[in-house]
Amino acid sequence: xxxxxxxxxxxxxxxxxxxxxxxxxxxxxxxxxxxxxxxxxxxxxxxxxxxxxxxxxxxxxxxxxxxxxxxxxxxxxxxxxxxxxxxxxxxxxxxxxxxxxxxxxxxxxxxxxxxxxxxxxxxxxxxxxxxxxxxxxxxxxxxxxxxxxxxxxxxxxxxxxxxxxxxxxxxxxxxxxxxxxxxxxxxxxxxxxxxxxxxxxxxxxxxxxxxxxxxxxxxxxxxxxxxxxxxxxxxxxxxxxxxxxxxxxxxxxxxxxxxxxxxxxxxxxxxxxxxxxxxxxxxxxxxxxxxxxxxxxxxxxxxxxxxxxxxxxxxxxxxxxxxxxxxxxxxxxxxxxxxxxxxxxxxxxxxxxxxxxxxxxxxxxxxxxxxxxxxxxxxxxxxxxxxxxxxxxxxxxxxxxxxxxxxxxxxxxxxxxxxxxxxxxxxxxxxxxxxxxxxxxxxxxxxxxxxxxxxxxxxxxxxxxxxxxxxxxxxxxxxxxxxxxxxxxxxxxxxxxxxxxxxxxxxxxxxxxxxxxxxxxxxxxxxxxxxxxxxxxxxxxxxxxxxxxxxxxxxxxxxxxxxxx
Length: 565
Description:
By secondary structure, the protein is of the alpha/beta class. Helix content is 60%, strand content 10%. The strands form 2 sheets. It has a 5-stranded mixed β-sheet. The chain has a 4-stranded parallel β-sheet with strand order 2-1-3-4, with helices on both faces. A hairpin with a 2-residue loop joins strand 8 (492-504) and strand 9. Helix 6 crosses helix 7, helix 9 (225-235) runs antiparallel to helix 10 and helix 15 crosses helix 17 (435-451). The chain starts with 8 loop residues before the first helix and ends in a 6-residue tail after the last helix.
């Protein structure tokens, strides 16, 4: 009987929550230009009467429809967006409610329906009639979804609206600031800032903006004061003043708050001044009625100032208070700890050496901001070192393209990125602005990869069928009655894993390893296989990841492909 790995229910729930919130924040991020434009036209409305008509059109139709298009496209790229837009148009015409969460729910349902019908009905039974079948089902699904959502919203929409209004009323009480600010600041440090801001606060702020014209929710996470206070405190001790000054400038004027997260993670005591500074600033905004016309993205002081209501002076004072309180608290902590602030060169861990590296992806949560800067830094270094032909792109954690050879991401995102992209080489960094990291990456990864010829490794897990030629079967050496080794005249190491077992020569094999002849490490790999214990061999039944096989056979050690710079 095959053994299975059971995930902890808490881990499953955490994973589902992460996927949901990440899904929401990707939708908002892709349409952020519309929301920024909405804020700008609200400001212009004070002096240009046509702005009111533009705002009304954006709120009623354009933003809901673009949200529907984006949602559908994320679920089913070819037909999901069309189905979602049609369903949303039907809903908006029949039921004048432009709540974004409702549009996302409707779009998700309609695009999932066309996806299931296409894969399970049309392509399965009528593959030659795909275009005809899909074009018939799209309007049918759109009508059913749009009308159904109108009926549902008519019956429960009022109750849903009461819940939203209740949360908005909570936001009008001072105690809410004391409750929500610590959650926001702690979440930001652990790279959940976009999820908190665009997955939760944005929706509340958007609803309040529709009702009142502006909202404090837009400012709670984007306030640059606490983060700037942390960076300024480090600036006092940092030897590389120029690099730190660049970081401070980009955080405050560029609005990329992720820069200070790694500093706080290294010293969690800094959470206390960070939270206190956030509370002081947000409470000041609340008392003096500071709010924004739209969500500033990125959270630059320039956009925040542009979107502020008539309380501009109090906005600046609130941010200044956040900076001062956080700075002095962090300064005292750092001074008392007498920390060595010398910048360490990051370690580059190589997993597999590939002969041709054509594309590298820089990954952060939203695919903007820090990953964009990292992409530019690495592109410049590649050009200087003669690797200008390598393409560099930045992505969100869910959207890395298949042709990317190497992924570079922050260490706090490593686990989630590895789960999604199991077949990619993943390298972690601590600071996207660390130019030394990119220099070391080129020196100790790309350069050695270019100069060193090493056999490729292909690992295929969870195989069911085996194709073993008669010639290979004659050469097959069976070890411990569970593993087969075949020596061949090739330049690749091929490992095929069979968790259910396959019958060969009256033995139930769980793994077949093809090793190149005249490759000096082949004998070491064979010796390692021969030395596996019965328990390790039994584990072949539950392995479901290439890296587990790498660890089991100690391939990184034998092939010397995992080194530290």
